[in-house]
Amino acid sequence: MAVLDKKQCADCPSKDMGIFCGLTFQEAMEVSSTTHTLKFKRGQSIFSQGNSPEGIYCIQSGNIKLTKTGQDGKETIIRIVTHGDVIGHRSLFTAQEFHGTATALDDVVVCFIDRNHVLKLINDKPSIALELINKLSRDMGVAEERSSSFHQKNVRERIAQLILELSDSHGVDLGNGEVQINLKLTREEMATMIGTANETLIRIISEYRKDGLIDQNGKLIVIKDRKELQKRADGVH
């Protein structure tokens, strides 16, 4: 981890996507005085499961995977977060230890705000409290949707759904109806996200490539036929 020069919230490229989007310029400047800008390299942990929360982390750039390790020692990816997201808030407000581990998937820059400053900001700026409530609600909705999908869809459908979800969050339009997912995940990481074996995921992705639904650009997945991929996700063959 490296400590960078302080970044002004008002100048942050992800400000409009985060919990501080409703602040005025002056209010954003006030928040900046309470933050510490940190940089993590790929593979470094931002926080670890079981540790006590000391504040929240606003993601300025990069991608982070949130994982949870079960009693059997198996690690499961809960979700992928990116610029504009906030992490660490759930444990902070429940006064519980972190339920999972946050690990950088690439070079990541975050702004850290300690617990006391967060609570003061929420008390002084109701708009921040509202944005946090909205985020917690969205996170819960995503978790419920994924849980429902996990129980109702078979493995092929879950893999198609995962690719579509990653496209929505990290997709870049290449033109000609193709979308590239600009996120480097190993096949093992993708498999843990939907609860299947690595070998199964590799086999089905190969099938989707053979059928012309997706392709690969280096380590990045390219969606070539989103309409047909959606049919596979919906169980319509």
Automatic annotation (TrEMBL):
A Pfam family it matches: HTH_Crp_2
Lineage: superkingdom: Bacteria
Record keywords, A-Z: DNA-binding, Transcription, Transcription regulation
Segments crossing the lipid bilayer: none
Keyword Methyltransferase belongs to the record: no
InterPro entries membership: cNMP-bd_dom, cNMP-bd_dom_sf, Env_Response_Regulators, HTH_CRP, RmlC-like_jellyroll, WH-like_DNA-bd_sf, WH_DNA-bd_sf
Residues in Cyclic nucleotide-binding domain copies: 19-139
Domain HTH crp-type: 153-227
Protein name: Crp/Fnr family transcriptional regulator
Lineage start: Bacteria, Pseudomonadati, Bdellovibrionota, Bacteriovoracia, Bacteriovoracales
